[in-house]
């Protein structure tokens, strides 16, 4: 059953990435040099609407909060994010879009994925020697989310009702998506 | 480009993918599967990299500290490649292929080597593009693993859950990526 879901959900995600133009590195590069914000608008809208619905559906018991998986916050998240940002800006691919772009017959995506396998291998090999360094110092307690809504993860703003907070952030994101200009 | 949907429809599609994934299973993530793919190949040539270990939480362990992390979670996935997260990423290729066949945007032959903006800036030589993109891939996956997730897992899934890590990751990625893109490709 989970393998069936993996196939259906994976197809949906790959379909969405291709159809919105995220497998086209031109769109990513133009987003990063702030020329064409089409993708950024789509991303803001996607996060905004999925977050709002996620917390609403959790609050009425349709989504199991046990399905949430909040990642830890530590220095390496920012450093790693910056390294990703550099490669993302130059290549126009991130891990997910490069894999989906293989289906477009993009040869540069193939080289990106090849490099990615090497990068992941290098990390796998050196992890043992960096795991106790400052890179893994947690920020604000590690696995935290802004809104309440799950027993597994701590809320940073526990005095606010989680559903309301998430909906406010979500609607704000949707407004950004709507108001951002298409092209600069 | 022809066949590409606008931000509204595209955002709905993407949002649906992220929401349905968390409704039925768990939040979407991709970059871990590069490690699993490496591990699967490694495991073909090594008898010791992944071992059955009744003492570990998942029943598997590895002498490699990363594969052994979280009670041998990655070691277990390497030992059983037909698992949810790995099949999910393989299915993404099928989904993108379907979209492309069913009226989605289609790149030209030249686009398949390098996007237009690259060709304008650096010319038609594909080898230079391939070499650069290869090293960008090394950097991106190294960075993703250091961060513990990529654009899918941290930025989209993370911010959807209002996870602090998602915002930190997006901050790092755009603070480095936007100046880099402007420096490399210029604004005009």
Topology:
The complex is a heterodimer of chains A (184) and B (188).
Chain A: H1 2-20, H2 25-32, H3 38-59, H4 75-91, H5 95-101, H6 107-130, E1 144-145, E2 154-155, H7 162-179
Parallel strand pairs in A: 1-2
Helix pairs in contact in A: 1-5, 2-4, 3-7, 5-6
Chain B: H1 7-24, H2 32-45, E1 51-52, E2 60-61, H3 69-79, H4 84-101, H5 116-122, H6 126-147, H7 151-160, H8 164-185
Antiparallel strand pairs in B: 1-2
Average pLDDT number of chain B: 96
Global geometry of chain B: globular
The number of helical runs of chain B is: 8
In whole angstroms, how far apart are the ends of chain B? 20 Å
Largest sheet features of chain A: 2 strands, parallel
Strand content of chain B: under 5%
Number of helices of chain A: 7
Radius of gyration of chain B: 19 Å
* CA-atom Rg of chain A in angstroms: 19 Å
How many angstroms separate the termini of chain A?
A: 46 Å
The count of β-strands of chain B is 2
**β content of chain A, as a range?**
under 5%
**Which regions of chain B are unreliable across 5 or more consecutive residues at pLDDT < 50?**
none
User: Which structural class is indicated by helix and strand composition of chain B?
Assistant: mainly alpha
Structural class by secondary-structure content of chain A: mainly alpha
